[in-house]
Amino acid sequence: MSDPVPTDRPGKETGQYEETDSVTRRKFFKVVIGAAAFLNGLILGIPFLRALINQSPLKKLSYVEVGDIGSLPAEQPTDMNFPLRSSDAYLHEEVIHSVWVVKHSPTEATVFSPICTHLGCHYKWNPEDGRFECPCHGSVFTISGKVIGGPAPRPLDTLPYKIENGKLFVEWERFKVGISEKVRA
Ligand code: FES
């Protein structure tokens, strides 16, 4: 049996250092991969977290400019459209919404959601008969939103608003349909 070959690294002949180096490398790669996975999860998770917060019933609404109401005729329902930017996870889009506005004075109005409280169709104002009518199942509402016919379970939903310098701003929100209480959707 021959003597072990002398080396300048003690333990090399036993493989002890190679094993230690290999364990250290493995640990290093584990840490790097773990950190990369964590960062990746964080980056991917942020939009979903934002979407969750946006869907929260506690989400704070803000006023959106609808338009000039100075020239609207008084006590005459008017359909007003406005763009609203929405964010859902990665998707950002601008959607055109509408509201029915009944102006009472330069500083007072009633703003109705355009969504029928029965099953969510868009109703119209019938100027001849002076009432709101839903084409889907025949619900009928007065100019103040009260149900006077059809299956609608509650009056038309009003939206919070403010008027500043002749401009109308509303807090756009949706409510559950088909139930007698006005509950945020
Ligand atoms: S959705 Fe309007 S009456 Fe049914």
3D architecture notes:
This protein is of the alpha+beta class. The protein folds into two domains: 12-55; 63-171, Rieske Iron-sulfur Protein. The chain is built from one helix and ten strands. It has one helix at 16-55; strands at 63-68, 78-88, 91-105, 108-112, 124-126, 131-133, 140-141, 147-149, 161-164, 167-171. The strands form three sheets. Strands 5-6-7-8 form a four-stranded antiparallel sheet, with no helix packed on it. A hairpin with a 5-residue loop joins β7 and β8 (147-149). It is elongated, with a radius of gyration of 32 Å. Bound molecules: FE2/S2 (inorganic) cluster. The site of FE2/S2 (inorganic) cluster (FES) has 13 residues, from loops.
Write down the CATH class of the largest domain.
Answer: Mainly Beta
Largest sheet: 4 strands, antiparallel
> Any ligands, ions or cofactors bound here, and which?
FE2/S2 (inorganic) cluster
How much is the average pLDDT? 84
* CATH homologous superfamily title of the largest domain: Rieske [2Fe-2S] iron-sulphur domain
Report Rg.
32 Å
Overall form: elongated
CATH second-level architecture of the largest domain:
3-layer Sandwich
Quote the beta fraction: 25-35%
Helicity level, as a percent range?
10-25%
Counting helices, strands and paired strands, the structural category is: alpha+beta
Total count of strands: 10
Q: According to CATH, what is the topology of the largest domain?
A: Rieske Iron-sulfur Protein
Low-pLDDT windows of residues = none
